[in-house]
Specification:
single chain, Archaeosine Trna-guanine Transglycosylase, Chain: A, domain 4, 2 domains, five-stranded mixed beta barrel, about 25% strand
């Protein structure tokens, strides 16, 4: 029987020394972003059940070389911790959850798990400013929007430009980092950018390169 989405009670919790790991390619999480997930694989159902009984914290990380279907693929060492802010269980025993990004982390080493999922010891210090909103930083927003229009046209992506126009700088950049169909290694570069401005610069460089590749491909076909 399906259940209505539940919002767990809020708890104040320190950042933990270890996290269960949700390993998925081409998906990243950033602080203060929301990520809905449809969880259906048995080991991740086990992980979500475990997290719901604890502090509701999960570490989202990417496997290297898109080998997540291997039993234990090598992982990038930098990920982002998400807090489960809502969840629902479906009739076919899936979990629909929302993760709220809290802070990036660096994995120190994997640790034994009490279930079928992977866990790791975590170092938060490299990203100790993630829980603070980034300071207002000037960047060429008009140039970014121009690049974005070109990129979306080439990718046949439809969007609501009014929503993008009215988004704050952080909301705009974070949403583009999560939603643009970049390669996993490119997504990882966006995740690992040390500062907000460096993330903006990385994003604009990726958009420019994608547009150039597409234009070169079009010319090669003619």
């Amino acid at each position: 029987m399906s259940t209505a989405p539940k919002t767990p009670e809020k708890k104040e919790a320190a950042l933990p020394a270890s996290l269960p790991l949700f390993c998925v390619s081409s998906i990243i999480l950033l602080p203060r972003t929301n990520l809905p997930l449809n969880v259906f694989e048995p080991h991740y159902l086990d992980m979500v059940s475990h997290a719901l009984g604890k502090a509701r914290m999960i570490g989202l990380v990417q496997p290297k070389e898109n080998k997540e279907r291997q039993p234990k693929p090598a992982l990038y060492t930098v990920g982002c911790m998400g807090l489960i802010t809502s969840f629902a269980e479906t009739e076919d025993r899936r979990f629909l959850i929302n993760l709220r990004g809290i802070s990036r982390f660096k994995m120190i080493k994997e640790t034994p798990s009490h279930g079928s999922f992977r866990c790791a010891e975590i170092d938060w210090q490299p990203f100790d400013k993630d829980t603070e909103k980034p300071k207002k930083t000037a960047f060429e927003r008009a140039r970014l929007m121009s690049l974005l229009r070109h990129y979306f046209d080439l990718q046949a992506i439809v969007t609501d430009w009014d929503i993008l126009k009215n988004s704050s700088d952080e909301e705009l950049i974070s949403s583009l980092c999560l939603s643009c169909p970049f390669e996993p290694s490119e997504k990882q570069a966006l995740l690992e950018a040390p500062t907000f401005l460096e993330r903006v610069q990385t994003l604009m460089a990726l958009l420019e390169m994608a547009c150039l590749r597409q234009n070169d491909g079009e010319r090669a076909r003619h």
